[in-house]
Design goal:
Number of helices: 14
Radius of gyration: 21 Å
Strand content: 15-25%
Largest sheet: 7 strands, mixed
Order of helices and strands: HEHEHEHHEHEHHEEHEEHEHEHHEEH
Structural class: alpha/beta
Number of strands: 13
Length: 345
């Protein structure tokens, strides 16, 4: 697989207009199963074709149980300078419900271990609204985050996916279904709490101290181009073209051995691009740039948007600041619904 990924990097080196990389993200699945030597090898391969920005952000996703002492020590000697750790919770009952391999003690010790080796740019994932939790437990999770000096948090409401153990447990009455009212309460408590501890709430699910916002994910939210390498990876050219690699590993490798890119491509319609701009932009502190809307879209779409936002501006569900459409933070928990109301169907 490693050779195939290197082959894809070489075949796609001309797809980004700017060959200076500002971020690299080892994510999707569990990239921390790679050895440190394999990570170094991939970074060397990127540097054959791209220049690295002097302040490049290079992130590795990892689970707490992957971050043993030897792995972290070796990792600290590479160009990886940011960790995104799938902590989820500092309580064992939550972790058991989520079927996580690590326990609460490992969740905490993995963060401390990374910091001990100088990896201080850390983001953790936290899940709120679990049936095994409540507001008091959620407060303790957030207090532990501050106690550990974590500078970035990505936090999501627990959702029940089809055909999962959690869905079966709920159907059988083993655990309660997540309550939206409780999730709403925990979301807004988190927002106030983290703001009071110096975090910027810059995207619905993301909080970062100044200087620790995710540069990589911010590029997605600002509709900047990105290149995805590996099975199932997605790419976007910043304009009309989106592509994705096939998910099947053996076909992925076979195609690359034949010098064929294992990807499919779609050209976004004006409607699709507009809907995506609304969905992504309205989830962020930056909002949707009306100047960009007027540059990109037809007069029909601009007229449609002006008409659709009128009542929402009057009811203050939306606001316009410096020619950006935004959702006031007090309505962020409902942001996806507000954005979808603006979609062109």
């Amino acid at each position: 697989m490693l050779l195939a990924i290197k082959k894809e990097i070489g075949l796609r080196n001309n797809e980004l207009d700017n060959e200076i990389l500002k971020s690299i993200y080892f994510g999707g699945g569990t990239p921390s199963v790679l050895s440190v030597d394999e990570i170094k090898s991939l970074l060397d391969e990127f540097q054959k074709y791209f220049s690295f920005d002097e302040n490049i952000e290079i992130t590795l996703e990892a689970n707490p149980d992957d971050l043993n002492k030897n792995f972290v020590r070796e990792l600290s000697q590479t160009e990886i300078n940011r960790l995104s750790i799938g902590t989820q919770s500092f309580f064992d009952e939550d972790l058991k419900l989520m079927n996580r391999a690590h326990n609460a003690s490992e969740a905490e010790s993995s963060i401390k271990r990374a910091q001990d080796f100088g990896l201080e740019n850390i983001s953790i994932d936290l899940i709120y609204g679990s049936p095994t939790s409540n507001l008091e437990i959620w407060k303790q999770n957030l207090n532990k985050t501050i106690e550990l000096h974590v500078p970035h948090v990505s936090s999501y409401a627990l959702t029940v996916e089809p055909k999962t153990a959690l869905e079966r447990w709920i159907e059988n009455g083993k655990v309660a279904s997540p309550e939206e009212t409780e999730q709403n309460q925990e979301f807004y408590y988190m927002s106030d709490f983290l703001r009071n501890h110096g975090f910027d709430h810059y995207e619905i699910s993301n909080f970062g101290k100044p200087g620790f916002h995710s540069r990589h994910n911010s590029a997605y939210w600002k509709s900047q181009p990105y290149l995805g390498i590996g099975p199932s990876a997605h790419s976007y050219n910043g304009h009309l073209e989106r592509s994705w690699n096939i998910a099947n590993n053996s076909i992925y490798i076979k195609n690359l051995n034949q010098n064929t890119l294992p990807k499919e491509t779609e050209i976004l319609s004006e409607k699709d691009r507009f809907n995506e701009m609304m969905m992504i932009g309205l989830r962020t502190i930056w909002g949707v740039d009306l100047n960009k809307v007027h540059q990109i879209f037809s007069s029909e779409i601009i007229d449609y948007l002006n008409q659709e936002i009128k009542s929402k501006l009057e009811s203050r569900i939306l606001k316009i600041e410096n020619n950006y459409i935004k959702i006031p933070e007090k309505h962020w928990f409902l942001a996806d619904g507000i954005a979808s109301d603006l979609f062109i169907v």
